[in-house]
Specification:
There is one protein chain. With about 425 residues, the chain is an all-alpha fold. About 65% of the residues lie in helices and about 0% in strands.
Length: about 425
């Protein structure tokens, strides 16, 4: 489908989440200062801590469930299109296998060459499992997968909350003296991560399956008929996500050195709460983005191919959607920017700045990427890595007229991720 006909909600959610992902991933580059909960720096300025609090409430353990949910939603849409073309399951699964193998290769390259917190490889492995479940006729399999695998995220939350109890001051590759030394560390991390993904990262299947369920009813595409469902999900999901983040965030502010609250069990429970409520927050963010994107399009007029230049809100939303459509490219580009600025063998900002200055750098990079993504959309082009994925994996667009609905095809093949493979790189 033309880029202008993509569903706005999922792309808006991706575009906004990329800002949070970049901010959360700075923990993978800052080094030399003792970690506290959520891998933040125990010693921080007031400005740093303000940024940390915002991230803890809205980004940490909320970004990666959001992207996993959107990833699963995309798989569900592609399956709908396959069914509309009358294809058998083996055709769909063959296409998905090829697609996920290409994504796995991209993830390995990203994780080894740039950032050890890559999650694309894990998405490729767990996503293929989700595709298998989507293709089964037993409709109860996806809800069962949600119930069984969302709790598997709990160990991640436990770890995030208890890292301040051990002497740790950053990722090993973040403080590597040379690029080759960092490359060796990242290669080991990635090989281990891929080898253990089906066990260590199986929790990703929960939000992916949730997204695939949402795709069955066109939840993020057909906003008007689903509005009575979208509104309470948005309000409830965001409320639960924020409430569940408050306790661990309070520890971050009040006792970052664990002078009075050093119970591993107590901290771990707060971390699990922070992690699991992040799934609800992610769902609320996705449905909220769908409502906002639909409202902007409705205000601009259904016949308008893009936002009115006289409406700055519509222009801004459309620009963020453009970034979301190039999320794979933007995600990897973030790592290129960090690699150029943070390691000891470049500018060594990882040992010189905290969360506040990192937020300034991240925001500046995000705005630049929005400009580039908007230019690509106006030119009718996809992001470079989106092009590579489609070319190597084979376009999912059918030959000739697609019997599937336009809104089904509009979600497109975009994929993005946040970091996870190593502790604390999740968002």
């Amino acid at each position: 489908m033309p880029l202008t006909q993509r569903a706005g909600g999922p792309d808006l959610a991706r575009g906004l989440a990329l800002l949070g992902i970049a901010m959360a991933n700075t923990v993978g580059w800052l080094h030399g200062t003792q970690w506290t909960v959520l891998l933040k720096q125990a010693d921080a300025t007031v400005a740093d801590r303000i940024v940390d609090v915002i991230a803890a409430l809205t980004v940490d353990n909320r970004g990666f469930p959001l992207f996993a949910l959107l990833f699963g939603y995309g798989i569900g849409v592609l399956h709908r299109r396959s069914l509309a073309r009358g294809e058998r399951s083996r055709i769909f699964l063959g296409r998905m296998l090829r697609r996920h193998l290409v994504l796995l290769a991209l993830g390995l390259a990203h994780g080894i060459l740039l950032f050890s917190g890559d999650i694309l490889a894990s998405y490729a492995i767990i996503g293929m499992l989700c595709a298998v479940l989507v293709s089964r006729r037993n409709r109860w399999l996806l809800p069962l997968a949600v119930l069984l695998t969302v709790p598997l995220l709990a160990p991640w939350g436990w770890a995030d909350a208890t890292y301040g109890l051990i002497p740790a001051d950053g990722y090993p590759d973040a403080s590597a003296a040379t690029y080759l030394e960092g490359l060796e560390i990242r290669a080991g991390d990635m090989l281990y991560g891929v080898g253990t993904a089906l066990v260590m990262d199986l929790g990703l299947l929960g939000p992916m399956a949730l997204g695939a369920i949402a795709a069955r009813i066109h939840l993020l595409e057909q906003v008007t008929p689903n509005r009575d469902l979208l509104r309470p999900i948005t309000a409830g999901g965001i409320a639960v996500g924020l409430a569940g983040a408050v306790p661990l965030t309070a520890v971050l502010v009040a006792d970052p050195h664990h002078a009075w609250f050093a119970s591993e069990v107590g901290l771990g429970i707060l971390g699990v709460l922070h992690q699991l409520t992040g799934v609800a927050g992610a769902l609320g963010a996705a449905t909220g983005a769908a409502l906002v994107a639909d409202a902007v399009r409705g205000h601009a007029g259904e016949s308008s191919p893009g936002p009115s230049r006289r409406n700055p809100v519509a222009v801004a939303v459309h620009a963020v959607e453009a970034l979301g459509a190039t999320a794979l490219t933007a995600y990897v580009l973030q790592s290129v920017i960090f690699l150029a600025l943070y390691p000891p063998y470049t500018l060594d900002l990882g040992a010189r700045v905290g969360s506040a200055w990192s937020a300034v750098i991240v925001l500046a990079g995000w705005l630049v990427m929005i400009v580039l993504a908007s230019w690509l959309r106006r030119a009718g082009r996809r992001g470079p890595l989106e092009f590579v994925l489609r070319r190597l994996a084979g376009s999912t667009s059918p030959r000739g007229p697609d019997p599937g609905s336009a809104d089904a095809a509009s979600v497109g093949p975009s994929i993005a991720g946040s970091a996870h493979s190593t502790p604390g790189s999740r968002t």
